[in-house]
Amino acid sequence: MKLNKLIETDLDISVKGIVDDSRLVKSGYIFVATRGFNVDHFNHIKDAIDNGAVFLIVDREIDFSFPHILVDDINNYYKELCLKYYDINLDEFNFIGITGTDGKTTTATIISRLIENSAYIGTNGLTINGKTISTSNTTPCISELYSDLRRIKDAGIKTVVMEVSSEALLHNRVDNIKFDIVGFTNITGDHLNVHGDFKNYLESKLKLLNLVKENGYVVVNNDDINLRKIKYKNIYSFGKKNANFIIKNISFMGENVIINIEYKDINYSIKSPLKGEYNVYNVVMAFIIGKLYGENVNIMINKIESLKPISGRCEFLDFGQDFDIILDYAHTINGISSILDTFRDHDTLITVTGCAGGREHKKRSVIGKMIMDKSDISIFTMDDPRYESVDSIIDEMVGQNTDYIRIVDREEAINYALDIAPPNSALLILGKGRDEYMAIKDKKYKYSDYEVIKKYFENRF
Questions:
Q1: What is the residue-wise DSSP string for 159-216?
Q2: Are 429 and 352 in contact (CB under 8 A)?
Q3: How far apart are CA 184 and CA 208, in angstroms?
Q4: What does CATH list as the number for 315-460?
Q5: Strand order in the sheet with 159-163
Q6: Secondary structure of residue 141 in the 3-state scheme
Q7: Is the pLDDT assigned to residue 37 strictly greater than 80?
Q8: Hey, what's the torsion of the CAs at 156, 157, 163, 169, to 10 degrees?
Q9: Contact at 8 Å (CB) between 414 and 449?
Q10: What are the two backbone dihedrals, phi and then psi, of residue 181, each rounded to the nearest 5 degrees?
Q11: Residue pLDDT, tens place only, 214-270
Q12: Could you tell me if 14 and 29 are in contact, meaning their C-beta atoms sit under 8 angstroms apart?
């Protein structure tokens, strides 16, 4: 597209892309100098130019000569520019948004599998017609989000199921999207380094209520105390009591969980292969949202029964070993507690994890103690240390305790855990899920827990 078709300028040059990260700039790109939480992109303008930027969008004047435009509200301008560049009309889509501290990825993924002809955007990437492309964040940055919507539009899909993070809501990334249905999984606190305190975090999450369409629906987990006070005209709650959809019973049959739900004197029995009580809540929310969206209940129940594991979420890995290996993204206090409780009935429970650098310090000791209390063997290692020392992070996690194993290198830690895992044990590898990088300082190095485990067994046999 020509620049003078996008922006009021006499410059007749081709635009190849729009980004606000100077490291992603290529020849022919527009660079938008937004202010991020950790970085002011205005300070990286010259890097963007060196990488090939042909035009700048700024909210402060630059002190040198280069084609640019000065705007007041740079974030809103950025969104409008992307809408025009990618030729997107948001009214053409139906949006379902899922937020919460834990369960967003699993719930949103299940919903996208239950609703015919829908796409998924979230932590696990962009999924269209069963094919997945990696994305940068839970809720992608503005240009990436609209690029994703263009791909979805080109595939002829109208329904978009997306995870909506607290940071995306805080920084107004989705403010011009109107959602047909939104779901709140739970709110227990996370990213407090960004939000400052739990009150601000909760307020950011609840901003999603303002983005629901006039005739849209809100679905909440009524067993979460922080969600019970939500008021909305078309609200549907679920939980074990005092809710619209009552979870009457949870039982186990072989490898499956049987969930009985009652709604207006109608009983639904759902068989789910996804283990753990936390997954019961994820499945129930997905079922309710699918029902509100107009999907056939019986077809959805059949689809749930045949659900495949969600990538990196309580994902069982089978390499012919005589113990369970579970790969999970859990990194919050609630998420880690839930998965530990799910697998405590094994003969031996081994847990490998760490805490990310540049995040809340207060939760580290809580997570460390919980892991040591509930695991038979606790192995602490790196998890996206960024600018922090891995040893310092582990020190905060373990405190004065000595009943743990410290292996800083994550690959070595996982290999050690695989070496010592006895038959009938459960090995939990937590924190990274199916991430394909390790964040060290300001770089992301290629790394995958799954690939480490796969290589271990390939070398063994």
A1: EEEEE--HHHHHTTTTTT--EEEEEE-------HHHHSSHHHHHHHHHGGGGGEEEEE
A2: yes
A3: 9
A4: 3.90.190.20
A5: 131-133, 125-128, 118-122, 159-163, 94-99, 179-184, 212-221, 235-239, 245-253, 256-263, 266-272
A6: coil
A7: no
A8: 70
A9: yes
A10: -140, 140
A11: 999 999 999 998 888 888 889 999 999 999 999 999 998 878 999 999 999 999 999
A12: no
In sign, the C-alpha dihedral spanning 456, 458, 459, 461 is positive
Gap between the Cα atoms of 458 and 451, Å rounded:
10
CATH 3.40.640.10 given to domain 90-305: no
Instruction: Report in angstroms the alpha-carbon separations of 81 from 31, 142, 172, 422.
Output: 11, 10, 15, 57
CA-CA-CA-CA dihedral for 200, 353, 274, 123, to nearest 10: 50
Q: Which of 222, 328, 212, 216 is nearest to 284 (CA)?
A: 222
Q: From CA 212, how far away is CA 99, in angstroms rounded?
A: 13
Q: What is the pLDDT of residue 189?
A: 53
Distances (CA, A) of 269 to 42, 227, 266: 55, 25, 10
- Say which residue the tokens 């009983």 belong to: 267
Q: Which CATH architecture has domain 3-85?
A: 3-Layer(aba) Sandwich (3.40)
Distance CA 448, CA 438 (A): 8
Predicted TM-score (pTM) of this structure:
0.87
E strands, 100-165, where?
118-122, 125-128, 131-133, 159-163
The residue behind tokens 């192995």 is 379
The alpha carbons of the chain give a radius of gyration, in whole angstroms, of 23
135: its two tokens: 């994305």
User: Tokens 């042909």 — which residue?
Assistant: 54
Domain boundaries, the chain: 3-85, 90-305, 315-460
Over pLDDT 70: what percentage of the chain?
Answer: 98
Query: Which amino acid, residue 337?
Result: S
| Angstrom distance (rounded) from CA 245 to CA 262 | 6
Give yes or no for a contact between 301 and 290, defined as CB atoms under 8 angstroms apart: no
Q: Output the DSSP codes for 313-355.
A: BSEEE-SS-SSEEEEE---SHHHHHHHHHHTTTSS-EEEEE--
